[in-house]
Amino acid sequence: MHTPNPWTYIWLRPRAVIRDALTHDLHKRAVVILSLIFGFLTTLSYQRLQTFTLLGEVSLFQLFLIGIIGSFFGPILYYGAGALVGRIGSLYGGNGDVTATRKSLLFALFMPGILLGFFKVGYFTIIALNLHFFKSATLTPILQAYSFLIGIADVWIMVVFLIALAEAQQVKLWRAFLVLTVFIGIGFICVIALDLLVQLFV
Q1: Helices in 55-201 by DSSP H: which ranges?
Q2: Which of 32, 50, 95, 134 counts the highest number of beta carbons within 10 A?
Q3: DSSP letters along 117-139, please?
Q4: Of 116, 147, 128, which Cα lies nearest the Cα of 63?
Q5: Do 179 and 85 meet the contact criterion of CB atoms below 8 Å apart?
């Protein structure tokens, strides 16, 4: 790619990254690996799962097993939701390009989501260590600030994905937002499925 490192550049210049990505083919194995990592980290970042883990109702082995199973949500989103959202985009004046839509998913949602996922897992790890070992009140304001920054990053990722989706579908932002609502609906279905998965281990 001609743009700088897309892992960091996507946060500030999503249109430029997607334009560049659209001119290159994706390595299928890399796509699968990245989507699995995204699914794994997103599953481990699920707050209800983390709560059950902190309460001792889910063991570390069960947590890891749930994460492995949840990792498959990544490829499902990439191939399934990517195709559906791509086709639906044509109904809102978009080009209906499934490949372009999948690239926007990979570069503007999965890649920043993976980076943020590591921070979320790190945040959870610090909370767990503080709860069971350190028991330090001085970490509370730090963790609160950490949580606030994570919340801002979550919102910004959706903004980045919206811009990237608009570029991939060649539509205005408000039309891309309509398409995004469909993806959000799919996301809610995934959350319900993840919740059912967690319930199996509790």
Answers
A1: 60-70, 73-75, 82-89, 98-105, 111-129, 139-169, 173-201
A2: 50
A3: HHHHHHHHHHHHHIIIII--TTH
A4: 128
A5: yes
Contact 104, 88 (CB under 8 A): no
Residue type, 149: L
Nearest to 180 by CA among 104, 112, 79: 104
d(CA 21, CA 106): 10
Sign of the Cα torsion 59, 121, 106, 96 reads: positive
Diameter over CA atoms, the chain = 56
Rounded-to-integer distance, Cα 89 and Cα 101, Å: 9
| pLDDT tens for the 202 residues of the chain, in order | 566 789 999 999 999 999 999 888 888 999 999 999 999 999 999 988 888 888 888 888 999 999 999 999 999 999 988 888 878 877 777 787 889 999 999 999 999 999 999 999 999 998 888 887 777 777 888 888 989 999 999 999 999 999 999 999 888 888 888 888 877 887 788 888 888 888 877 6
Q: State the DSSP code for 27.
A: P
Q: Report yes or no: 95 and 170 within 8 Å, Cβ to Cβ.
A: yes
